[in-house]
Amino acid sequence: MVELLRTLIRHDTTNRAPGDAEGELAAARWVEGLLRGAGFEPVLLARADAPHRANVVVRVPGLDRSLPGLLVHAHLDVVPAEPGQWTVPPFAGELRDGWVWGRGAVDMKDMCAMTLAVLLDWAATGRRPRRDVVVAFVADEETDGSYGAQWLVDAHRELFEGVDAAIGESGGSIEELRHVDGRSVLLSRVSAGERGTLHLRLTASGTSGHGSRPHDDNPVLALVDALHRIGHHRWPLNLSDLVRSQLQGTADALGHVVDLSDDAGVEAALETLGEAAEVAHFTVRASTTPTVVRAGYKVNVIPGEAVAEVDVRCPPGCTEELLAALPALVGDRVRMEHTVLNPPVEAPVDSPWFAALRDAVESEVPGAVVVPRCLGGGTDAKAFSTLGIACYGFAPLSLDPDGRRPGGMHGVDERVPVASLRGGLRILTRFLDTV
Ligand SMILES: [Zn+2]
């Protein structure tokens, strides 16, 4: 598995912009060849207009084909790396001091390698899963999946026939936290939802003219007024069932007493839990964050138009309220368009799937507590959930006994402890063998 990861890292699958990740094809071909050599029947799929943006999908028939299927998805692309800032070359796949180093080591070629290792182990030992397991190694997660997960869902939904649940990016790893009585607690946060993503474009039109002759129809001012309202707006608390069980579960595990029955109680719980509440600080309410502003071309010219983009995130269960409230906040001087509108994702926590994830963690890591969580951002689960698939974030890594921690995701010196990979593989194998 470690060697699989190192080889995957050496395939530079940098995703710089839409339509640009040349290395995805070579990585996908390597994965396809490995699977075919082990006796599986993978398919390599890419959009006709971008044959190098390749995906690999394989279905492993289960022992009982009447059971609903499971999807395992992981992306092969990575974000760019600036080699000059790194301790090691980012695409060398170095194994050093108990770590595997390189871009993708934790996001998320580690999960690709663990999943491949399980498949190859099944082939070598003749074991088979109880139910059909569909595995998708996808392109383009680091942009928007339009060459990867989203395209597969749009153009090849037949691949996911009979699939009821999925595991994928972000969740399951073992963390060590402090109980109020001082002892350490092992927590595994399994994602069971994501805030929705809306990208807004705001356009103010006005009258251009000389900067020395101000007038009331300046689009820059109209846009700034709208951005001020929208950016400073504090959205009301909107506690989804998922975030509620996240906060309650985390508090219980750490021995904190919280009362989530009203808004003040929720605010107090967030305060009490602090960093242990993790992304719940962002997922208890919607957020509207101006990120891009474009206007003007010369200091003494009032432009005719000013444009901004706003990153909007919305917890499960409040999309309609948010959409209804936005126009008043933006005002009537500015035109508003949605450039992206991906609804929130929420999978049940009281499901046999979640129970199986919990069992796998608790069997391999005695004493660990599994807590559900809602992600603040998005993953490919956004695409797969539109097929009615219950999507969980589960790509587990265990603790390193020497205290090393995975790090550098989207940053410098991305690396993963070998011991964490090995423990993660045991958890993943247990889950896929028993689910
Ligand atoms: Zn990722």
UniProtKB/TrEMBL annotation:
Keyword Membrane appears in the UniProt entry: no
Superkingdom assignment: Bacteria
Alphabetically ordered keywords of this record: Hydrolase, Metal-binding, Zinc
An MF annotation (GO) of this entry: hydrolase activity
This protein's name: Acetylornithine deacetylase/Succinyl-diaminopimelate desuccinylase
Organism: Auraticoccus monumenti
Family: Belongs to the peptidase M20A family.
PANTHER family tied to this protein: ACETYLORNITHINE DEACETYLASE (PTHR43808), PEPTIDASE M20 DIMERISATION DOMAIN-CONTAINING PROTEIN (PTHR43808:SF8)
Cofactor (UniProt): Zn(2+)
Pfam name, any one: Peptidase_M20
Peptidase M20 dimerisation domain ranges (all copies): 193-319
